Structure formats: C-alpha cells, structure tokens
Amino acid sequence: MALVDLQQTADALDHSLASIESVLDPTAKRQEIVELEKEVAAPDLWDDQEHAQQVTSKLSALQSQVDRLNTLRSRIDDVQVLLEFAAEDGDKDSATEAEAELGALQTEIDALEVRTLLSGPYDEREAVMTIRSEAGGVDAADFAEMLLRMYLRWAERHEYPVEVLDTSYAEEAGIKSATFIVHAPFAYGTLSVEQGTHRLVRISPFDNQGRRQTSFAGVEVLPVVEEADHVDIPESDLRVDVFHASGPGGQGVNTTDSAVRLTHLPTGIVVSCQNERSQIQNKAAAMRVLQAKLLEKARADQEAEMNSLKSEGNSWGAQMRSYVLHPYQMVKDLRTNYEVGNTDAVFDGDIDNFIDAGIRWRRSQADE
Fold first, then answer.
1. Rounded to whole angstroms, how far apart are CA atoms 320 and 307?
2. Is the pLDDT of residue 14 over 70?
3. What does the CA dihedral 234, 235, 241, 242 come to, rounded to 10 degrees?
4. Residues forming beta bridges with residue 321, ordered by sequence position
5. Does the pLDDT at position 255 exceed 70?
6. DSSP symbols for 240-296
7. Which domains does the chain have, with CATH numbers?
8. 66 vs 33: CA distance, rounded Å
9. What is the pLDDT of residue 250?
10. Concatenated DSSP letters for 22-72?
11. Torsion-angle region of residue 173: left (phi > 0), alpha (psi -120 to 50) or beta?
C-alpha cells in the first residue's frame, strides 16, 4: 500500500476512535472508577455478597473499557510516528510495520464501534438465555444441544462466566431446553440479536436410511432483572412445585426434592431450576428468571402497543439463521445475509461476526 494511502487509513481510524471516545466518554468512566474503588475499599462491602459482586464486576468492566481505549489511542499515536519515519527517511520497514498494525487496529476499532450501538434500556445488563428444541424430533433436540455448546464456547472464548440454571434432557439424545445466565456487561445487548428460530439442515445421524433432515431450535434472550426494576410478584400469583433433580437418562442427581418449578398463574409462564443443591437456592434462581421474563413481557407489550400498525411481530418465532451441513456447508444469517462456510468454527463458538452484523442490522432497522 502506498504511503499516502497508509496515512489516509491512519487518519480515518484516528477519527473513528475519536467518535467512539465521544460516545463512551472515558473521562466520565474514570470518575466512576474512582467512586467504585472507594466502595470496594469499604470494610463492610462483602456483608451483602450480591451487591459486592455487582460493584466489583462493574469496576472491572469499566477499568477494562478505559484500558482498551487508552491502548488503542496509544497504538494509533505509535502508527503515526512510524509513518513519519517512513515519510522522512524512506524507511520501508516502518511502512511495512505500520501497514500490519493498521490492519489489526481496523479490526479492533470496528469491533469496539459496535459496542457504541448498544444503547437500549437494558443493553448493558447480563443476559438470561433459553434454548428450546422445536420441530424435528430427536434431530431438533440434538440441534438444541449443539446451539447450547456453541454459546457456552462463545462465552468461554471471551472469558465470560456462565451459570447454568436448568437443563431438560431429551429421552434419546440432546436437550428439550436449557436456561443459563451469561455474566458479562452488555451481554444482553450483545446476545439479544441471537433471539429467534435457528434452522439446521443435515443428513440425520438418527435416521438409519441416511436421509436429509431439517430441524429447528428456538433461542430466547432476556436481560437479568435488577433490584431497581421492582418486578412485584405476589405469592398468590405463584404455584410452586418441587421435584427430584435429574440428569441425562433420568438418573437422580440427589435424593431430595431440591428442584423447583414456578408457574406464574396470571400469565402461565413456567420456569424451573435444578442445578443448585438446595430447594431455597433453586427457588431464588427460578425467581430471577421469572422476573426477567415478566420484565421482558411488559417491555414487549408496551412495544406492541406502540407499534400496533406494524406486521412483523415478535422476533421469537422469526427464522433468523440457517445452518446447512448437507449438500454443502454454510451458515447464513437470513436478516443480514452474512454467511460463512466454516460450520465447524461456528458451532465451536466463532459467532462474533454474526453478532456484530446483527447489531448493525438492528440499528439500521431502528433508524429507518
């Protein structure tokens, strides 16, 4: 690349980063970090463990964001110095190094720019995800488990802690459903574009005639409820059932009725949790999910009322991504048209480009 083109690229990235800094406001974040550090230093912080975890998690996230912005700004300044050397002394090595660094910076700044598009009321929260098998019998149950592994691997790649609340195993293979929380800032805003119906086309490993099978799985994404949301659920609106926790093949995990199923009588919403060792812990976890579902229902009802003239409906039933393993291999997002041929990488959690394309698509829809 010619030196003048490298300089134009560097200037464009400098401008892009400045725009991102104006949105993310690192100065305000530094002030918030100072206040949170005072809170963390308080000797009674861990008297309330849930609040302490929220404070320390938020502090860590803010420090990470500020450090990331500082590092990118420093790297752009260093590139400008390399370009000056290349221009003044005809230093080809500096030009080559600058070109490589500009390519890496372009990727990182593009990814950070997507974060600035997450400005919804709940986008910065952690996410509750539920995956359900839909049409397709045992293939659909197996597909649901493939998607569960895909999202868990994605979280692992980013070092995001995951808390699995409930898994309902299918009789032959796979899962009927699974619910888990992704503990990361902006997890909801990031993962909410994954909501919808996913379709798998492949030669069924469960068909002894080797026929091609199409199966479906649904993904639901909700924001984790916080104390400030005040989702009031009277005891009279709940039916609480307890049962034995179970694993694959119906084997008992323990000998007590520790698993809990909550039914919200006014809406018919049902949630369950069996992964904790005590009934009290499972009920508390199930209540968190139920509150999230009621919060999302209230938001969806309000949005439906405001957009009553639109015909698109809720994205829960909308087919949004196709995974084809036969007769060719391709994963394609049906909203953004983004596609890749490496299906193994996708099922191993390499879905960032799909998520980024989805966030940009969502923003473009909102701007229309």
1. 21
2. yes
3. 110
4. 198, 333
5. no
6. EEEE--B-GGG-BS-SS--EEEEEETTTTEEEEE-SSSSHHHHHHHHHHHHHHHHHH
7. 3-115 (1.20.58.410), 127-305+315-368 (3.30.70.1660)
8. 10
9. 47
10. HHH-HHHHHHHHHHHHHHHT-TTGGGSHHHHHHHHHHHHHHHHHHHHHHHH
11. beta
Q: Answer yes or no: is pLDDT of 301 > 80.
A: no
Q: State the Cα–Cα distance between residues 272 and 238, nearest whole angstrom.
A: 13
Model-level pTM greater than 0.85?
no
First to last CA, the chain: 37
Residue 90 zone, left/alpha/beta (φ > 0; ψ -120 to 50; rest) = left
182 neighbors 126 (Cβ within 8 angstroms): yes
Q: Is the distance from CB of 3 to CB of 95 less than 8 angstroms?
A: yes
Long-range contacts of 99-106 (CB under 8 A, 24+ apart): 99/1, 99/6, 101/75, 102/6, 102/9, 102/10, 102/13, 105/13, 105/72, 105/75, 105/76, 105/79, 106/9, 106/13
Find out whether 224 and 217 touch, Cβ atoms under 8 Å. Answer: no
* 3-state SS assignment for residue 364: helix
Which of 124, 145, 138 has the alpha carbon at shortest distance from 62? 124
- The most distant pair of C-alpha atoms in the chain lies apart, rounded to whole Å, by 80
Give me the torsion for CA of 10, 14, 19, 20, rounded to 10°: 90
Per-residue pLDDT, averaged over 219-247, amounts to: 80
Strand, helix or coil for residue 120: coil
Q: Tokens for 101?
A: 């660094």
